[in-house]
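Reply to dn_fold:

You asked what the input looked like. This is it:
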Amino acid sequence: MDVRFKQQFLELWEKYFPGAELPITYFYTNDRGWEERAKSAAVTQCVVDALDAVRAGGTLALDVETTQCGGGKRYLGFAQKLRPDFEYFLSTGIPGKMEGERYKKSPQLVMEQLRRLPTFEAPGKFIVFKRWDMLDLDEEPLAVVFFAPPDVLSGLFSLANYDEPDANAVIVPSASGCASMVYYPYVESKSDHPRAVLGMFDVTARLCIAPDHLTFSVPMSKFVDMAENMDGSFLALPSWAKVRARIKAL
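and this is what came back:
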């Protein structure tokens, strides 16, 4: 992590989003030094719920063994297969065997959506989550994830579109909470024109975060551009100053 850029963003964030929560980041690594920490951080439920400690300044390391949620394993890149009968779990269920979540109208729709998704294999044995200000010199995040209310989201959304001719520089895929934060930003990072991802519309994961918050996840290359554009953008104008005052007052 470039120390200059790390500090530059911290100063810009406080300047234009005073008092708003700092983003978290994640990166993959094969460094065995993370093994013991991963072993002590078994996530038996939703990965999103385990990120509270990271948002508070802690560190979370996970691997294939300690990520027990089936969806989390897949969308963090640790497994390609989902639980048996997943297409029924996400849709109609199976009478007498399983209560479906009914996020899709039919099992066939689930299978078709999965068929269209690019495959994703974790580029390292461990995934490590850290808040932006806690990153060390040798740690290079793949993406930045904001947990934010509408006023903050409006600034991030507008900044993501600031230097783009396309009106769709931010996507809102149908996805689990962890997929919108890890899987989709990772896939976008491989694109020539990576897009930001608005997420946490997953009803099951909603109770893991505040009722007025969503996530805004940005591949690192796009995030660098967003940060470098802040001073010359709408953020320096009176229209944003009025919104900024509301953010500071929260």
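The CA atoms of residues 161 and 168 lie 8 Å apart.
Hope that clears it up.
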